[in-house]
Every structure is written in C-alpha cells, then in structure tokens.
Design brief:
Belongs to the protein-tyrosine phosphatase family. Non-receptor class myotubularin subfamily. The chain is an alpha+beta fold. The protein folds into three domains: about 1-95, PH-domain like (Roll), CATH 2.30.29.30; about 125-500, no CATH class; about 535-595, 2-Layer Sandwich (Herpes Virus-1), CATH 3.30.40.10. It has 20 helices and 18 strands.
C-alpha cells in the first residue's frame, strides 16, 4: 500500500477540485477527501491510459478510464509523481483476465439463488420452444457444433432447417468467415418467420459453395416460393466490395437467385470507436451556446449511428412482421453489428425480451452464446487499441433510446442499463470477460467468477420500471428518427455537475408511488401525515446522516417519512411499514410507548 498526501482530485471537465490524499492498494486506487466524507475509487483494470499534464506550476496525472469517468490527480512534488507513475505502470498492464476482483469475488450481496443460477439462466432449447410455440415443424436442434469444432465461437447446439443435413451445415461453415454459418437467431411466431444470422461468405470474385446455397434454400423454402429470403448486409456497400479483394465479400444474387439483398450502411468498429471518442469530448466540453453544443455533438456522428442501427432494426422487423419473409443478417464476422441488429429486432418484436428476465435471456442468446468479443472490444488484454470499440455499450444506448420513446413498454428501468454498462467496463463479473461459450468453458469462468445475473436478480426491485404496462404486441409499426435522439447523460455525463441528473423519471415515479402508499397507510392506521415540505432530490448530493455521496447513478435514495430529509439506503430503516431515519425512528418509538401507557406526547 502506497499513500500520497496533499493531492487534489478533479473530475473531467469538473468545476471544483477536492483536496485529499491518494492511496494505491493492490487492485485499486482510492482518493479520500480531507474536506468532506467522500472518496473516489478506480480499479486498475479500468485505466486505459494515463499521462502527465502540466498546469502552470502544478503537475497532474490524467486518467482515461474504460467506464468513461476520466479525472485528474494533482500532485505536490515530483517524487510523488514518480511513485504514483511507478505503481500505475506496474499494475495497469493486464495479462490475466482473472487478476480483477471478479476472481476473488469481493462484492458482497445477498444472492437468493444458487451460485450456478446465473450461469445456467439461459436454456437454449427451452427458449427455442418458447419462441416457436407449437410450430416447430420446419426446424430442428443440431449438435453438429457440440464440441465447438465446426465454429469455435458459436454455441454448442444451434437450430437449423429440418431438411438440412449436418454435412450441409459443416460445408457452409467452411464457406463463411470464422466458420459462422447461417443459424436461427429468433423465430417470430406471429407470422412464422425466421431471423437468421451468420458471417460474410468467402466468395471473393468467383468462389461458390453449393452447400451454403442449399442451406439458405432450406430457410427460404419454409415460406411461400414467391417470398424471397431477404439478406441484410449491415456494412456499407463499398466496405463489402473491398472485402471481395480479400477473398470475402457478399452473396451474388445470380447464385442466390431466391434471395433479395440490402446494405444497411452501418460503419465498422474503427469508425464507431473514433466517433465515440469525439462524442465523449464534445458532450463533456463547455459550449458558449446550445446551438454550438448541438453542432459539435452532431458533427461526431454518434447520434447518427445510433439512429441508423435503430432504424435498420425497424426495417428488419417490418420485413418479418408486415411482409412475412425470412430475413438473414450478417456483417463481416457476424458478431458485432449482427449481434446488435438481431438483439434489437427481437426486442422490438417480442414483448418477452422487454421484461427484466427476458432481456437477460436476449443478451445471453445474441451476445454471450452466439459470441461477441467482449474482452477484445473492451481492450482488456490487447495493448493495441485498434480492435477496441463500444459495440455492447452502443447496443445498450439503442435500448435506452427506445426506452425514452416508449417508457411503458419496458419492465426494466434506466438504472438496469447503467449497471450493465458499469459492470461491463469494470470486469467485476465473469459474464463479460470472455468472447464466446467455448472460452467460458475452457477457462472455467463459472468456477472462478460470479455471474452478473445473480447480482441483478438479488436486487430486482431496484431495476423495475413503474410505468411498465405489459403488452402482447410489438411496436414495429413505429419508427425512430434523429429528432428522437436524447443524450444518455447518466452514462456519459455523471461526473459533470452541470450536465448530470442522476434522478431519472422512474426514480420520481417510485417516490410518488411511495408517498401514495404512505398516505394510504396513514388513513388505515391513523398515522399522522408525513412532512409536507420534502427536500427536492435534485438539490441534495450527500446523505443527511452519513454524508455519503449520492451522485452515483447506480444507487437509489429516499426521503425519511417524518423529517423529509434525504438519506442513503443504509441510513433508512423500516418503521411501521415506512422508511425513517434513525433519529425519527427513535422519536416514533418513544411516542408509541407514551401512547400505549395513555400519555399524549403533544400535551
């Protein structure tokens, strides 16, 4: 442990620095304020890079973090800078996925489930039967990839047309990038259509594969002959054409004459990464006017790409719902843009995936089971940043945007999405540590780490949307345009007081409902009404009792029923079915005792 006194902490683009000291522990760095009872902690695995900055006569270390919470530490001497730099150089270089807190399970939470619950929450066959209902005559379970030999990044069991032989599947895999052959992602039982996923074909200029054509023909033959199989290539056409030179490319409609084809023009991971970096700088920069801020943010193209992905998902859903045709999605390797589009399309079509449990199943199905390079995109082990890209966070933001437009359609709230983004960055759970199912098994991730789903389902009440109204229909008839876009302030700006508002709509709804319930209990039990003037939640940043920081977007807060002050959840206790602070609970207890012996405390 190394402790450095007389330092100052400044959040990225913050207004005021905080005096305190920095302590370097084995797995994390912690800044503790000397002026107030607040602290700021960052795990070494969160630090992407750090660099020395000079401000007049002061030296600071700038931290660029995976969780987007960048900050500066000002140091009082050159020796302090050398000591801290030495620690950072030794501990921020990651060579082992299990060197993070996930391995030793430092998080303490009351899990109501067996430790294996989260790892086994997704049952492929059970979900297949749920999707198909009674109509499973055209599809079958295939164990061709049981040992992950056909495709190392696919699940062990997949669902393919009943008439397609395993030999056809194996030959098709040899003709697809990374062996990612066409397989069922989602079955839409309203129109009995299939959403299929795969990677780009290795067609080059003249290559053909009769077995690959045959496999897609089996999917096409599940519908009427006049309804062609619709192939959506997520890439811009120029990118797909460039891959032809590399021996890859896209389907030739002269060979796949039973198909029709569309490019969705979604950029690759490199363009998305650059856009995201510019967006973070723009959204955290102080602008002279609203118009200049708007122009700066729009120039990054991040809102444009979010809208592009959502609109593409609606286009796919329209084909499945209105035209009742089978659709196939692929990009280059079929596990970035393809995962986003398959998951979002399923979310729009199926209300089950808009429940808390269903959304967990959706992530397990389209990202975890079918493979997504979480480790590579997060840059955990790679010294080269060219393969990093915020693909999973971009998917979560797409869901957030849909949540904002359709607030009653989702059982889960924004805090749930924020938690997923936070733990994806922090690597504290094993769920997002590996890139595919095979790696999870070979590295014994379930034995060495905890699943995030155990943590999520041990505190379900924190993630429920009180505006939720269950529906049995999709909202495929609507669309999403650029004017619907909203900056996800609670994710990107929560360290900036001028922009951050951690109290979301569902938080206000929770407090309103809580007040209604209290009033009802008052009438039934003749309890005196609570304080009439409640402290606004937007004006308070620390717990009234322990001064704990309340600016983190992940933890709920509440009022005391009696005094109406704001407290953290640790400082509130249940008192006659109401939340009260310790002081008010003692007063209530004394008052109740006096009333029991016939003494009126108001006299």
């Amino acid at each position: 442990m190394i402790k450095i006194e007389e330092t100052r902490y400044l959040a990225f683009n913050g207004t005021n620095s905080i005096n305190g000291c920095v302590t370097a522990y084995r797995t994390y760095l912690e800044f503790v304020s000397t002026d107030s009872n607040t602290s700021h902690r960052v795990e070494y695995c969160q630090v992407v890079k750090f660099k020395i900055q000079k401000y007049f006569n002061t030296v600071a270390i700038e931290f660029i973090c995976r969780n987007l919470a960048n900050f500066l530490i000002f140091l009082s001497s050159d020796s302090a800078v050398e000591r801290l730099i030495g620690v950072l150089e030794a501990r921020t270089v990651v060579t082992n996925r299990f060197c993070f807190p996930a391995y030793v399970s430092p998080l303490t939470y009351n899990s109501y489930f067996d430790r294996t619950y989260g790892w086994n929450i997704y049952d492929k066959q059970q979900e297949f039967y749920r999707m198909c209902g009674m109509d499973e005559s055209h599809l079958r379970v295939s164990i061709v990839n049981l040992k992950y030999e056909v495709c190392s990044t696919y699940p062990d069991i997949v669902f393919v047309p009943k008439n397609a032989k395993d030999a056809t599947v194996i030959a098709s895999a040899a003709f697809r990038s990374r062996g990612r052959f066409p397989a069922l992602s989602y079955y839409y039982n309203v129109t009995n259509t299939c959403l299929i996923r795969c990677a780009q074909p290795l067609s080059g200029f003249t290559n053909k594969c009769a077995k690959d054509v045959s496999l897609l023909k089996h999917f096409w033959s599940m519908k009427e002959p006049h309804k062609k199989l619709h192939i959506f290539d997520a890439r811009p056409k120029i990118n797909a054409m460039a891959n032809v030179v590399k021996g890859k490319g896209y389907e030739d409609l002269r060979v796949y004459n039973f198909c029709c084809f569309d490019f969705l023009d979604i950029p690759n991971i490199h363009v998305i990464r650059e856009s995201f970096e510019k967006f973070l700088v723009s959204v955290r920069t102080k602008h002279l006017s609203v118009s200049s801020m708007f122009k700066s943010i729009m120039s990054t193209n991040w809102p444009k790409y979010i809208c592009l992905i959502i609109e593409a998902s609606f286009t796919i859903c329209s084909k499945l719902h209105h035209e009742a045709v089978n659709c196939l999605i692929h990009c280059s390797d079929g596990w970035d843009r393809t995962s986003q589009l398959c998951a979002l399309s399923s979310l729009i079509l199926d209300p089950f995936y808009r429940t808390l449990h269903g959304f967990v199943i959706l992530i397990e199905k389209d990202f975890v089971s079918f493979g997504h390079p979480f480790c590579l995109r997060n840059g955990l082990l790679s010294g080269n940043s060219k393969d990093t890209s915020p693909i999973f966070v971009q998917f979560l933001e797409c869901v957030f945007q849909l949540q904002q437009k359709y607030p009653s359609e989702f059982q889960f709230n924004e805090r749930f999405l924020l938690h997923l983004a936070h733990y994806f960055f922090s690597c504290q759970f094993g769920t997002f540590l590996v890139d595919c199912e095979r790696e999870r098994i070979s590295m014994e991730v379930s034995e060495n780490t905890d699943s995030i789903w155990n943590y999520i389902f041990s505190r379900t009440h924190d993630y429920l949307n009180l505006f939720y109204q269950p529906h049995s229909e999709s909202f495929v008839h609507t669309n999403f345009k650029i004017h619907n876009y909203k900056i996800w302030r609670n994710l990107y700006c929560y360290k900036i007081p001028e922009l951050y508002d951690c109290f979301t709509l569902d938080t206000y709804a929770f407090q309103v409902q809580e007040q209604v319930n209290r009033n009802l209990r008052c009438k039934s039990k003749k309890i005196p009404p609570s304080a009439s003037h409640w402290t606004p939640v937007t004006h308070v940043h620390t717990c009234y009792s322990c001064s704990a920081n309340l600016n983190a977007p992940f933890e709920p807060i509440s009022h005391c029923y009696n005094c109406a002050k704001i407290f953290c959840k640790i400082c509130l206790i249940d008192c006659n079915d109401m939340k009260c602070c310790n002081t008010c609970a003692k007063i209530n207890s004394i008052t109740e005792s006096l009333q029991n012996i016939g003494i009126d405390d108001t006299t």
